[in-house]
Amino acid sequence: MLNEFRQDLVSGEWVLFVVGRTHSLREDEDKDFYQIKKQCPFENFQESGQEIIWNYPDSENWRAAVIKNKYPAMRQGLCTTEKNYGPFKLFDPIGDHEVVVYREHDYGVYKFSISDFTDMVRIYKKRFTELVQKSECAKYILIFHNQGRSAGASIYHPHSQIITMPILPPDIFRSINGSFSYYKEHKKRVYSDLLEWEQKERKRIVYENKEFIVFCPYVSKYPYEMRIFSKESHAHFNQMPDSSDEFYADALFTSLQKIKAALDKPPFNMFIHTAPLKDDFGVHMHEFYHWHTEIIPHLKIDAGVEIGTGVAINVVDPNDAAETLRKASI
Ligand SMILES: [Zn+2]
Q1: pTM for this entry
Q2: Residues with Cβ within 5 Å of ion ligand 1?
Q3: Cα 165 to averaged position of ligand 1 atoms, centre (Å)
Q4: Residue 187 is assigned to a structural domain of this protein
């Protein structure tokens, strides 16, 4: 029975494993989340007043549309600097917030084929690259996909989001600093050590193709959490060569089919962690950082310990999670 604190090698965060005592994962309240087409703001962009940025692959036979988020978390404007209010620092949320809308209302990621994921990857990469060029104030770009209401999706129609931020988000700050410290101490990437060890132990690997590897991290904060790494190490997501798109799509497809089969279509958050856009480490970020994807199924609610201390409690041994996912037939 696994009962110990484990420290994340990159962020330094502690995770408490309490496996066996309570195995009460949350019942999925999401099964009934559905919105009819008639009320869907993504059925007719003109009618619902959405501003289209780009249709993929073209406006006639589009399979996905990139639109401006009508209720953005960031707003358009000129780059500003930090301000103060008493002892506090303030920053204007200048940035872009885009939505990638997939065409079919009832055809979400659990139904996507590898070719649909390849479309998704190409759209992500093109918008990422264009936003890097366009956004002078952006320090970070997050690409994410919320599936299900309890994972934060307020609209049923399948969509992903891309947001640029003028600050460095705390999770990225911790990871980038942690991996830079590791690099200074060991003269190598923390991610290379992590991947080498996972490949050697092979207990937590869920899936692998020629270019990508999927595993449940040894220090998983959440039950059945999965990470997808490219075997070629790049710091930024858009450095991935086009020839890798299909391998990445295959890894995404397989990961989501695995949680669909093993956990009965749970709500989840999926996001890409990539290096910050601005580099002031004195050494190129690919020397110590490695972009990757995280998939976090929503099976557990954070409670007193998590919110009160920042220590995540995980009730599933990552070895067991990986075995369940690996064996799930898709
Ligand atoms: Zn719709």
Answers
A1: 0.95
A2: 40, 42-43, 105, 157
A3: 28
A4: yes
